[in-house]
Amino acid sequence: MATLHLPVDRTTGVPIFRQISDGLRRAILDGRLRPGQRIPSTRGLATDLGVSRLPVLSAYEQLLHEGYLVGRTGSGTFVCDSIPDHLLRTPAVGTSRPAARRETRPRKRAVPNRPSPTNWSLPLVPFQVGIPALDLFPHTAWAKLIARQVRAETLEQLAYVDPAGLRALRVAIAEHLRASRAVRCTADQVLIVPGSQAALRLAAATLLAPNDRVAIEEPGYFGAHRALRAAGAQLVPVPVDAEGLDVAALQRRGPDIRAVYVTPSHQYPLGATMSATRRFALLDWAARNDAWILEDDYDSEFRYISRPVSALQGMDVHDRVIYMGTFSKAFFPRCAWATSSSQRRSGAASWNRDSPSTCSPRRSTSARSPST
């Protein structure tokens, strides 16, 4: 078996396991590793790279979980056979292939504040979906941080600031997403919002016109249904299986679907991780149909058997994915963000500024506030 060239740089801040997994992923996408090809054993690759076996094991486990690799008992580890050949020659990250665009037309803005027919406030009960163990929150430490921040607050922070949110917080979130989720973004693309539903409402108001058709997972997250309906969208259910959203079924729903809402890293409520094949197919569908992908990464901070799966947004070379995430599972509700596409950042920030659901000026200017 030929030696696989995977450069490892110990001088960077990127973990070795991440460098190895990224290198293997690029080798698969560039065609240097073909579908069905056996890859070196973890022990052999560790020897070739001059590293311990642990980061190689972690990298293989990550790619197995993402669907790029498959393990065969007694035979070794192989590149997944089901990655479509026409998707393997993917441009390098950071480049963008021109996509065919539908004829543009003047678009009416979605109605951003149509009242929801259901009460959003729910009583706190044990095992409630979406609510962390609030009784375990470190209130004393949090109160000290709030007091320290208030004492250091400047006059500028008390005034109206960037509608996208406190820049220092956006810089920190962008760095976190690049390192832990392989998201391709800068602080200028991060928008701070009160919660995941607010992120969806923002995306809908920016990207959709009233009565636009939006595909959703079936079964799927009820909160997304509410937010999209409130924005005037027509929901189109698409079935989910063990590999995530059924992209073939999505294609059969017609070419006029404007956007699709997905939870690819951990499908809600079935728990499936979208396979690499489905991810590429979904990105290809969005590019061909000039549609948007609304990626909700609602609980990526919680992994028990592997590291977080790389975000779908990091694989997107057409700028068609709006990535949404939240710290509400690690802290408490009303702590979320969205990464906008470069071409839509200005409109999204303007809606974020004007929306009454956005944090008040004082709360949106301080990293101490959970609403940022």
Q: So, CATH architecture of the largest domain?
A: 3-Layer(aba) Sandwich
Say what the CATH topology of the largest domain is.
Aspartate Aminotransferase, domain 2
Q: Radius of gyration from the CA trace?
A: 21 Å
What series of H and E elements makes up the topology?
HHHEEHHHEHEHEEHEHEEEHH
Summarize model confidence as the mean pLDDT. 78
The global form is globular
Q: What is the count of helical runs?
A: 12
Strand order of the largest sheet: 3-10-9-8-7-4-5-6
CATH hierarchy class name of the largest domain:
Alpha Beta
Low-confidence runs of at least 5 consecutive residues:
90-100, 115-120, 356-372
Give the total of beta strands: 10
Distance between the termini: 52 Å
Beta fraction of the residues?
5-15%
Structural class: alpha/beta
CATH superfamily of the largest domain: Type I PLP-dependent aspartate aminotransferase-like (Major domain)
- How helical, in percent, are the residues? 25-40%
For the sheet with most strands, the description reads:
8 strands, mixed
Query: How many structurally independent domains?
Result: 2
